Structure formats: C-alpha cells, structure tokens
C-alpha cells in the first residue's frame, strides 16, 4: 500500500494547527522532531561507524530540527560539528545554539573542509517551506553533499528538491540523493523519487488530526520515535 503524502501547503497548515488548536509550542514539536532524527542517525550510523557528525543547518525550522538533533547526538556520545551560516535573530534558534555551545559543540564556517573529516552528515538546510532556486550560500553546500561518499541523512526533504516534484531536472541538487530521509509526521510528495532508507518521525500527532489531514500515523513501537518505512517499496 502506498504511503499517503502531505503537500507542502497541507504540511504548513498542519504545523499551524498543531501550534494553535493543537496546543503545542514550537519548542515541543522541534524537540520531538530533532529527537526522532537523532534516533535515526543512531540506527543507521551507530557510534562504532564513526562519531563525527556534520550538521548543515538552514535558516528556518528545518535547521532548528538539526540543532536539536546535534544536541541529542552529543549526549549519545557523538562528536557533532555544526555549519550554521544564516542565523536568524529568533529567540528559539539562539537558545538552541547556546545549548550546543555549552556542550562545546564546534560551529564551523567552511562546510567542504569540515566534510573531509566527517563520518556522517545531517542535511537540515530546507524543509517543506523551500521553493525556487537555491540561494547563496547554500548551492556549494548542496553540491558538496551531492558529491561526497559520506552518508547523508536528510530531514523532511533532501534540500533543494521541490516538495512536490522531487529533484530539480538540472543544476544544484539534480544529483543530490541522500542515503537516508526522515519524513516528519508524514512523507511529502517528493518521496516518490527517493530510493534510500526512509523513516517517519515526529511522534506527536493525535489520531483526529491525522484523519483530518488524511495521512497515516505509522506503527511506532515501544520507546521509538521513528518507524522505518522503506526502501523496499512503501511498507505501511
Ligand atoms: N509539523 C511538523 O511536522 C514539524 C516540522 N518541523 C520542521 O519545520 C520545517 C519547516 O520549517 P519552516 O517552515 O521554518 O521552513 P524551512 O523549510 O526550514 O525553510 C525556510 C527557510 O528557508 C529559506 N528558503 C526557502 N527557499 C529558499 C531558497 N530557494 N534558497 C535559499 N533559502 C530559501 C527561507 O527563507 P525566506 O524565503 O524566508 O527568505 C526560510 O528562511 C519542516 O520541514 C520540518 O523540518 C519541526 O520543526 C516542527 C514540527
Ligand atoms: K532538509
């Protein structure tokens, strides 16, 4: 059975609803989203495969998920490094940054150089609000992630992919195929073009909300914050 997907518009509306009538705060949702990403990395890239995780962080909430994941990974025993070139003055992102600084997580300015000594990469640049052509300074970062042999885990969307249509036909991102994707709450239509390991995370949706937005809450087990749903077709 094919997984039901959420369009970019529906995902944004769901986000808004969770934070209004759903009574969640953005901090809560981001914490659970980032926690689920950290659990995926622990599964696909356990500590013995190498502790150096490079996190590419973008200017919105997708980036915030990456900052949260970096914090959890530090507590699990990894050595995360964060590339965060565009930092909005938003209080939430500043607090997430301070929490990482207190854990002595390094922030770097040169992504391609940092990539040379990374064992795993988290793509937290853009999520469901991405559109159009990738603007500076991110084209070189996406190009580096596309070319590296280091495995990449993308949060919610491979950055630069159109949320509905998938990878761009040419130019930046056309050759970017991350090894792992963590869809938050529900996959976006771009997942039809994704062939790697696919997980769903974001274990915070009430059944009535899932019904209203017409997607399936995957069968989370025990303490897990994630469910693997691919690559063998779409198992749900
Ligand atoms: N409900 C859920 O499941 C939850 C979802 N969560 C997460 O939130 C994510 C969505 O976050 P979001 O809405 O903040 O936007 P996001 O995708 O990070 O990007 C926006 C930024 O990118 C920029 N930008 C856009 N296009 C660009 C371009 N071509 N080139 C360059 N820049 C470009 C844009 O800049 P602007 O256009 O405003 O100048 C803006 O700064 C979602 O995918 C999930 O990861 C969790 O945190 C909580 C629970
Ligand atoms: K991403």
TrEMBL record:
InterPro entries for the chain: YjeF_N_dom, YjeF_N_dom_sf, YJEFN_prot_NAXE-like
Cofactor note: Binds 1 potassium ion per subunit.
Catalytic activity of the protein: (6R)-NADPHX = (6S)-NADPHX; (6R)-NADHX = (6S)-NADHX
Single GO term (MF): NAD(P)HX epimerase activity
PANTHER family to which the protein is assigned, alphabetical: NAD(P)H-HYDRATE EPIMERASE
Keyword presence, rRNA processing: no
Residues of the YjeF N-terminal domain: 11-216
Official protein name in the record: NAD(P)H-hydrate epimerase
Record-level GO cellular component terms: mitochondrion
Main location, first listed in the record: cytoplasm
Source organism (scientific name): Staphylotrichum tortipilum
NCBIfam families named among the record's database cross-references: yjeF_nterm (TIGR00197)
Annotated family: Belongs to the NnrE/AIBP family.
Cross-referenced Pfam families: YjeF_N
Annotated function: Catalyzes the epimerization of the S- and R-forms of NAD(P)HX, a damaged form of NAD(P)H that is a result of enzymatic or heat-dependent hydration. This is a prerequisite for the S-specific NAD(P)H-hydrate dehydratase to allow the repair of both epimers of NAD(P)HX.
Keyword Phosphoprotein: no
Binding annotation for (6S)-NADPHX: 61-65, 127-133, 156
Keywords: Cytoplasm, Isomerase, Metal-binding, Mitochondrion, NAD, NADP, Nucleotide-binding, Potassium
Cofactor: K(+)
Subcellular location: Cytoplasm; Mitochondrion
Record-listed K(+) binding positions: 62, 123, 159
Gene3D superfamilies: YjeF N-terminal domain
E.C. number: 5.1.99.6
């Amino acid at each position: 059975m094919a997984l039901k997907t959420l369009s970019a518009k529906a995902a944004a509306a769901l986000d808004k609803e969770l934070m209004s009538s759903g009574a969640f705060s953005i901090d809560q949702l981001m914490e659970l989203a980032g926690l689920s990403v950290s659990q995926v990395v622990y599964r696909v890239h356990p500590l013995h495969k190498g502790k150096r995780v490079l996190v590419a962080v973008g200017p919105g909430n997708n980036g915030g998920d990456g900052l949260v994941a970096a914090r959890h990974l530090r507590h699990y025993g990894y050595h995360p490094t964060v590339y965060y070139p565009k930092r909005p003055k938003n209080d939430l992102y500043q607090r997430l940054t301070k929490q990482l600084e207190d854990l002595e997580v390094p922030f770097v300015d040169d992504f391609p150089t940092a990539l040379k000594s990374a064992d795993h990469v988290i793509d937290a640049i853009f999520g469901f609000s991405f559109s159009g052509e990738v603007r500076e300074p991110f084209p070189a970062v996406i190009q580096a992630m596309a070319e590296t042999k280091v495995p990449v885990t993308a949060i919610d969307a491979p950055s630069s992919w159109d949320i509905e249509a998938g990878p761009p036909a040419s130019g930046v991102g056309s050759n970017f195929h991350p090894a792992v994707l963590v869809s938050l709450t529900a996959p976006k239509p771009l997942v039809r073009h994704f062939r790697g390991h696919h997980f769903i995370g974001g274990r915070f949706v009430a059944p009535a909300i899932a019904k209203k937005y017409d997607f399936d809450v995957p069968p989370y087990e025990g303490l897990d914050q994630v469910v693997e749903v691919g690559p063998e077709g779409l198992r749900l």
